[in-house]
């Protein structure tokens, strides 16, 4: 009888471990971000912030989304003595269509998108690290995930 109880307990523990592993595997992360920089002169560089988006998902434009709609993609660059932000972050032309879940036309990107930000290096720095935070929301035809904030760091050499 005692052996039977031990086997039963081991079986229950095994099932719980499998369920825990399965639940952890279900956490969705349909967007991966990568970063790069390219110097275009001794005093200027362009930052590239690339989102690679899983099939069926999309993220939203930083400019072409009305209030009451999804969370726009946004970038906040940490101020620094070694560089200055030049202009605004640019994006390619997004796809625009009516989304039932928001009852409005929204502009978004699928598959991948590269946002670009120009910076001016100050005389004290020939290289620097640009830090900041990005915020975005990802949706598919069935659901939206909560908005996500990510810290980024881009080395400019």
Explain this structure to me?
The protein is of the alpha+beta class and 157 residues long. It has a single domain, classed as Immunoglobulin-like (Sandwich), CATH 2.60.40.1250. The protein contains one helix and eleven strands. Strand 6 and strand 7 form a beta hairpin. Residues 15-25 have low confidence and may be disordered.
What is the CATH class? Mainly Beta
Instruction: Briefly note the structural class of the backbone.
Output: alpha+beta
Instruction: List the domain count as a whole number.
Output: 1
Care to count the β-strands? 11
**Largest sheet, strands/sense/barrel:** 4 strands, antiparallel
Q: Detail the poorly predicted runs.
A: 15-25
The sequence of SSEs as H and E is HEEEEEEEEEEE
Strand content: over 45%
Helix content: 10-25%
The CATH superfamily appears as Thiol:disulfide interchange protein DsbD, N-terminal domain
Walk across the major sheet and give the strand order: 1-2-8-5
Kindly state the mean pLDDT as a whole number? Answer: 88
Shape field: flat
**CATH fold type:** Immunoglobulin-like
Counting H and I runs of at least 4 residues, what is the number of helices?
1
CATH architecture: Sandwich
Termini separation: 70 Å
Gyration radius, in Å: 22 Å
């Amino acid at each position: 009888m005692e052996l039977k109880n031990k086997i039963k307990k081991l079986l229950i523990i095994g099932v719980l471990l499998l369920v825990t592993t399965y639940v952890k595997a279900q956490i969705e992360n349909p967007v991966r971000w990568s970063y790069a920089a390219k110097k275009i002169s001794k005093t200027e560089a362009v930052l590239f912030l690339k989102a690679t988006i899983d099939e069926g998902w999309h993220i939203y434009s930083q400019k072409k989304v009305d209030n009451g709609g999804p969370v726009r993609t946004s970038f906040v660059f940490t101020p620094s003595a070694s560089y200055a932000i030049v202009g605004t972050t640019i994006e390619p032309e997004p796809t625009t269509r009516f989304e039932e879940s928001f009852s409005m036309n929204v502009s978004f990107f699928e598959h991948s998108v590269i946002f670009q930000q120009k910076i001016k290096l100050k005389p004290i720095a020939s290289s620097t690290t640009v830090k900041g935070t990005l915020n975005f929301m990802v949706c598919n035809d069935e659901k939206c995930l909560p908005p996500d904030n990510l810290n980024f760091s881009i080395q400019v050499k």
